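Aim 2 progress. For Proline--tRNA ligase, the working sequence is reproduced below.
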Amino acid sequence: MRQTHYLSPTLRDVPADAEVTNHQLMLRAGLIRQTASGVYSFLPLGLRALKKVENIVREEMDMAGAQEVLMPAIQPAELWHESGRWEAYGPELMRFNDRHNREFALGPTHEEVITTLVRDDVKSYKKLPMTLYQIQTKFRDERRPRFGVLRSREFIMKDAYSFDTTQQGLDVSYDKMYEAYTNVFNRCGLDFRAVVADSGAMGGKDTHEFMVLSGIGEDTIAYSSESNYAANIEIAPVVANYSKSTEEVLSLEKFSTPDLKTIDELEDSLGINKEALIKAVLFIVDEKPVLALVRGDHDVNDVKIKHYYEASIVELASREQTLQYMKCEPGFIGPIDISEEVDVVADVAIQYVVNAVSGANEKDYHYRNVNPERDFKVKEYIDLRFIKEGDLSPDGQGVIKFAEGIEVGHVFKLGTRYSESMGAIFLDENGKTQPMIMGCYGIGVTRTVAAVIEQHNDEKGIVWPRAVAPFDLHLIAVNMKDTEQKDLSEQLYKQLMKDGYSVLFDDRAERPGVKFADADLIGLPLRITVGKKANEGIVELKIRKTGEVVEVQLEQLSSELTTILSNLL
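Predicted structure tokens for this construct:
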């Protein structure tokens, strides 16, 4: 492709609204342009990289035995009502009414549509197992689009869905997808981890996230210092490793704490350790008030609350709800003398506190010498908090450390979550109806491109891994006004394409410095420069990743390219 008329507008300055490296470089290298907040156009270079990732995904899906389909982005609301997700999915679901006032949504995912497709056309166990996938645009009304295409409102996603007759069959399908995902992200040159995760609005229980390690990751990975254990902190279990103080249990006492609402304020004012404080947080769990208790140095994990209650919606109580159920302003609530309609659940660590401080359910007052069971009752002590660095690893090996990660893939074992609610059944070998057992598997294709750039760059620009680079080679004619350089460049351009390489040919009438700066910014794996030694039949090769430069005679160019490119990841 000749750059003279190629739409690849590069920028010298970093755009003011681009916070992170991948967003800055995708704008500066001319891969994308913003159309609206969280909505981007992919320009030719960006689209070529996107297609490279799509092709890798497609190859691995096909190798795993999945079949490609294409489903509509517009989905009728009645399908979401069937599954029970129309309200549960939340405000990120883009909803609209057509001219006949029928409700629709722009698909953020396709569980409902794929379930109806298979429900209507697969009736017998003889057609199962079956895995279907698509690569398609998805839509989510993100509250705060950020980081370019990493968190946008419109994006390309590969979503796959497996249908099995048994749980063992689902395990096999899941493992195939897990392996395919591992292959995809390895081929894309990413440093990633597969971590145990929460399924969120998708439903299901067994699930893994594929997380690209990055300092800008919006998810935190808890991993073992001594083993391969890794999990999203939302789901990582805490190993109970507490001991109870032998100090004398003292009498309960209410005391004045004017304007001391937070754990930090109480710690500073009272001069006590946070471990001696009881943090009480009121949630509304499927419309039921639940008071969650953790130690002052811990944080309540709402995902664990959701799993404990097997709830659809878990939300922090509003000020009005706090006043309604606790008869008190937020900041002073606690577990003592509260309404029976409020469930009290506590983290395991609360069992071990002695003479703690908690809210008194009265403005500007707290209790000291609070002791569980004597002063308040708990429905159940459960693992309720977020894991912390330094905690014991759940697998018993080492301690927990944290790393940030960008989620690029997610695999779920859905079970019968959708097939039962939507009637996706089959006749087994005995002629009895059974619900299909489902799995769901997603890869963010646009997120993967951004994650590659976030991990593969230097101070000059992008450093593309060969597998996802928009072009194999960047051919630069230093001076197109020089006849020998121009003729040799044209000759090489045709021959390289004939040899099967994809080539970006910089034939612009620009200064050499501009061409070289753009080449580094765009970051193709290998640069071929035709310069002053064109009359001697010599060109210069530069490896973008290492900066290594070699001069090559034309008759050696073919073998040199084969050698260099075969060694590039």
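The mean pLDDT is 95. This observation will guide construct design in the next reporting period.
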